[in-house]
Amino acid sequence: MARLGFLIGVGWDAKSIAEDPIIACTRSNVLRMARKYGLFDSLTLGSLHDSRFSDVFRKAADKRGLSRYDLIRRILTEIAEEPYLLENILDDGA
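User: That's the sequence. What structure does it adopt?
Assistant: Structure tokens below.
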């Protein structure tokens, strides 16, 4: 359980966690355990560790002295506090 929480916390996705030699299970089992222990939202947020975005988030977080998770939480909070910002972001290209 501790290893699962740690790997989710550092941004590993379910497939990578399943392949970890200590965890050593299937992706489905990782998802099931994450749901059972209330870590599913963190696991899905960890999918933002995608190589296309990791450098962008890491650099932005480092610049502000934040963890990647805290940076993402701050961005989501800012969006949630501005009533029309989310709509504008999602519908801008439509």
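The mean pLDDT is 81.
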